[in-house]
Amino acid sequence: MKNLPVFKNPYLLLGLILLLHTAAWILLKPIAPNGPSDDPFQYAFNANSLINHSYHPDYLPYPNRFGVFVPVSLIFRLFGENPYSTSLWPLIASLLTIALVFFFLNKFADTAIASVAAFLIAVNIEQVSYSLELYPDLIVSFYAFAAVLLLYYGPEQSGNKILSAALFVLTLVLGFLTKETILLLVPFILLCLITDIIQKKHFRFWKLTIVFSLLSLVFLFGFYYRLTGDPFYRIKSMLDLVQNRILDTDMSKSITDVNSSNLLIWLNHKLAYLFLLLFSIPMLISCIKKKTLLLETYISIYSAYLFVLLAVIFHTPKMGIIYMQDRHWMFLIAPLAVLSASFICRPDKKFLWFLIPTLLILCIYNYFEMGSMRALLFFLFLAICLILYFVKQGNYKLLTLPFLFLLVYFVWSNSNYRLENASRSMKIQNQK
């Protein structure tokens, strides 16, 4: 199954997938940030301040997330400031995520899994939506998954351990300069370190990683000392964010008004995560039964760790409200896409006994709670699963079609071309 039958050249298929993702970005149409209260406006403002030599550090998070606005300032220099240039860096990060997953899986798994995983990320409505806006979450999720893949690849490969360790630490540093949520990976990295110590392997990689990490800390402290005169400025700004600035009352209310505090109900509203999670569960179960490949086991453990951690944070009193915002869960998209692709390309029919009743319950629930159009999405998955169950040699790649349908419906419903025209028509009617 090294090559898909239709595309003898896998890189042509990757090109089409990247083109599909870019087409969705264009059809949704980037728009200018709303104003000073809008996060993308703040990042664009800091990008402009670099160009105008008026940048000033602040305890607010925006001026400290250099990985967001420094690339944007370079783009502004090249193309000027407009809605498309403002949104270009998130799009590039999204395309890099898709390409990274494809190349890595094509090397360590096979072309079919690589192509399906890349496709699932490219059509994911959360991924598409935030490739359109200048938030740090999509960008830092790229660095996070790159670090996770390098942590798998670096210790195992027999080549240049120095380069592998350096690249691993570099992705973490770039992720930290983009958004401090990259620190969510620290317990997972420590788990991998402890496992390798117990098994007495990969000592050279970890020694180099520790050395490069210490050098990176020296660089970060020196950078902030040079910038502000205080080497611990970034640590103080993060503490200030958590203690004093994390949410005001109006913002908390605006989030809780549109999001449930019940995680299961919340997930039911977040289709970008729900469907990937459903098709990842068979691989998670197979991992427990030790019936998966080494890479699949590694990604399964990482996905389970990440989901449990985010679920715990979701239920904490203060941070829980923040994590009701779907963009804070974007670390999950790439690993869940990999696990879903593994199930779709190497299916185990007995897991349909889990998927069919689950999809049926969700279909009925969504029909009564959210209407027929919502239920149709679940019905499409349910119908394909039923067909695959009764057909001896069904093509499980049919399960990717509802994901594409969801993207098309999302683009049609949320395209700023349509919304702007509707708004313009409404204004004309009101004037009449």
Number of strands: 0
Radius of gyration in whole Å, from Cα?
22 Å
Number of helices: 21
Which class of secondary structure composition applies to the elements? mainly alpha
The ordered H/E elements are HHHHHHHHHHHHHHHHHHHHH
Q: DSSP strand (E) fraction?
A: under 5%
Query: Kindly, what is the distance between the CA atoms of the first and last residues, rounded to a whole number of angstroms?
Result: 63 Å
Shape: globular
In which range does the helix fraction lie? over 70%
- Poorly predicted regions are 1-6, 423-432
* Main pleated-sheet profile: none
The pLDDT mean sits at 89
Summarize the structure.
This protein has 432 residues and is an all-alpha fold. It is built from 21 helices and no strands.
Structure description:
The structure is a single chain. Helices cover 75% and strands 0% of the residues. With 432 residues, it is mainly α. The chain is globular. The chain has helices at 10-28, 39-51, 66-79, 83-108, 111-122, 125-130, 136-156, 161-178, 186-199, 203-228, 233-245, 249-258, 263-269, 271-288, 294-314, 319-322, 333-345, 352-370, 372-390, 401-414, 416-431. It has 21 helices and no strands.
Topology:
Elements lengths: L9 H19 L10 H13 L14 H14 L3 H26 L2 H12 L2 H6 L5 H21 L4 H18 L7 H14 L3 H26 L4 H13 L3 H10 L4 H7 L1 H18 L5 H21 L4 H4 L10 H13 L6 H19 L1 H19 L10 H14 L1 H16 L1
